[in-house]
Automatic annotation (TrEMBL):
Gene3D superfamilies: NagB/RpiA/CoA transferase-like. Keywords: ATP-binding, Ligase, Magnesium, Metal-binding, Nucleotide-binding. It catalyses: (6S)-5-formyl-5,6,7,8-tetrahydrofolate + ATP = (6R)-5,10-methenyltetrahydrofolate + ADP + phosphate. It comes from Ancylobacter oerskovii. This is 5-formyltetrahydrofolate cyclo-ligase. Pfam families: 5-FTHF_cyc-lig (PF01812). Its cofactor is Mg(2+).
Amino acid sequence: MTAASTLPDKPTLRAAALARRASLEPRLHAAASARAAAHALSWLGDVQGEVVALFAPIGSEIDTGPLAAGLRAAGARLALPVVVDMKSPLLFRLWQAGVPLVDGAGPGRLTIPVPPESAPLVIPDVLVVPLAAYDPSGHRLGYGGGYYDRTLAALRRAKRIEALGYAFAVQELPCLPAEPHDERLDAVVTDAGIITVTAED
């Protein structure tokens, strides 16, 4: 029996990590989001002119607002994901300062904030990735739809892109099961700091 086969299944791991995230008090949630933004900006360095794709947080997800503000101040161009359909990679629309977001179709029956259809489509240089859980090896557990795995695979075939997991430190698990289609992150940034991922043999 391999180590991976002894791990709890993905739904069990996902539920455990999400319960930890949901237990954060609002005051701690805000402070941790601000610390994570500072770490992310330090890791990204010079982003002048780069397209950085963020995500609009839903529920108890880490607040990306402080990171968005820091990136705009540093000269980055921001984008947000758009769901095309359940089997396709995400597309990204430019999110310009001062332009209100609108409701868009999200995974399943969710509605997510997206830029208006008049916003141009862009290809990110940096992809900030939401997640339910992560491990120190850069494996990510999403919400079960596979959107970001498909998206990262397509983007990496086209160009070099940095994939940055963005979450709270309480969402770290020691080891996650990895499948062939799972795309690893280049780094994970949390309120506790930065985990830089090294290539696997």
